[in-house]
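debug: dumping io for the single-chain case to check the tokenizer round-trip. Nothing else runs in this session.
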Amino acid sequence: MTSKTYNVGIIGYGLSAKIFHLPFILALPSDFNFYAVVQRNPQPDNDAEKDHPNIKSYRSSEELVNDEKIDVVVVTTGPETHYKLTALALKAGKHVVVEKPFTPTSKEADELVALAKEHNRLLTVYQNRRWDSDFLTLSHLIKNESLGRIVEFETHFDRHRPEIPPATWKTTTGPTGGAVYDLGTHLIDQVVVTFGLPKRITGFVGAQRQGDTGGYEDSCTVLMHYEDGLLATVKAGVVSPEVNQLRYWVKGEKGSFKKFHLDCQEDQLKEGLRPGDKDYGIEPDDHHGILSTSQTGKITQEIYPTVKPPTYVEYYRQFAKALSGEGEVPVKGEDASAVIRLIELARESSKIGRTLDV
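debug: decoded output
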């Protein structure tokens, strides 16, 4: 338990703040106090002050970061604002949690890492899918060598959504638009956490939908080549008419692991379930993965139960410890910058049509 309760100010009050941050901040009342928010245009059905009557509500980020009672700033606005707002908060002496994707460029990411060190503040990026139950299950199998030496690692975030979606930052042609920044950020981060940086990278970034005249890159396939022969494949597509979408398919010398369905936490949060509620974060039995193992020339198969996850609360639990000097931040800025650099290389590889060294 930390020795202090830290006052949190959140910039933005959209889906990210309400679904992916506040439930976990509020789940740790001895560590964090939701103190203030920046919401420029409250609406009758979307008003932070009505939802949380005891908070302060500001109309500008400058006002919030200049509040001396705030210890931590959480940046949940669109990625094109991340650099400016994170720098603003760090210069004001605040610790910062910033949503993914970290920044549009790795250069900007590196500058923020340096700025945090200059001001002796903690900076962490919200790569929450490191705490997905399926990823933790797979990590356990890899660490205990159940699969042996890994030769292929596929990670998918496919959906069947062939219709052109409404315009958001995710569907723009700007520097942080497209699937490789939106979903690829999570998938590439999981690969790097597991295996480190690849030696080379090949990217295929483009559109699977027809009729999109805006140039939105709705899909991506990224091949990450490792020196020991491992090939990691990151895929996010929008034309995938499957009843059960593939999530992982990992092959090793001793066995393989195949898993369908996404982690259940996002859907549960959108449905109103919260940390501490019965079955929150617990995957249904029929979503468990399949473990195949090879012994004495015979391959056997079994359903492998998904681990009980610490859930996304663990991100903020680790951050609270870091604030009290009891460990590192849950996701380092340097790690998030490396992921952005891989995305830059993947897009460049796709553009010029060749594999690039990392």
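debug: round-trip ok. The chain has a mean pLDDT of 95.
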